[in-house]
Design goal:
The protein has about 140 residues and is of the alpha/beta class. It has one domain: 3-Layer(aba) Sandwich (Oxidized Rhodanese, domain 1), CATH 3.40.250.10. About 45% of the residues lie in helices and about 15% in strands. The protein has six helices and five strands; from the N terminus they run αβαβαβααβαβ. Strands 1-5-4-2-3 form a five-stranded parallel sheet. The longest helix is centred in the N-terminal third of the chain and has 21 residues. The protein is globular, with a radius of gyration of 18 Å.
């Protein structure tokens, strides 16, 4: 009984450390600050993970549509491969856009970090595409 308990505790500790080692401290950027970066011609990659139909309906100018939403399956994650290759060795800030700035964007950031992109370069647009107030910077 004691051995089983000790093994259980050891497993929980191991999983806890593994989870914390993989956890990312997500950085968020407001729509206002993102607008300043875009208008100021700061080197920037905007990675949009919305579904294709949503992206075609509305997206920020210069955003690259990956159609990776909801970034859950391996197929979803593979849709990020092209943009990861483009930004991996660059120095530009990367802003990830999803419909509301939540789980899909975080999962996309996780994929990028796992691929070797410096987390300090990665930001999630607060409130996502749905919270973008600047119609003058929309492509559609």
């Amino acid at each position: 009984m004691k051995l089983t308990h000790l093994l259980g505790v050891a497993l929980m500790l191991t999983l806890g450390f593994a989870t914390s080692a993989l956890a990312t401290d997500y950085q968020f950027v407001s729509a206002q600050k993102a607008r300043e970066l875009i208008v100021g011609n700061v080197p920037l990659a905007i990675v949009d993970v919305q579904r294709e139909v949503s992206f075609k309906k509305s997206h920020i100018q210069g955003a690259e549509g990956t159609y990776a939403y909801p970034v859950v399956s391996e197929t979803d994650r593979q849709k990020l491969d092209g943009v990861i290759k483009k930004v991996k060795h660059g120095k530009q800030t990367v802003v990830v856009v999803c419909p509301v700035g939540a789980g899909p964007a975080k999962r996309a950031v996780d994929c990028m970090v796992k691929a070797g992109i410096d987390p300090a370069r990665l930001y999630i647009l607060e409130h996502g595409q749905g919270g973008w107030p600047y119609k003058d910077l929309l492509a559609n």
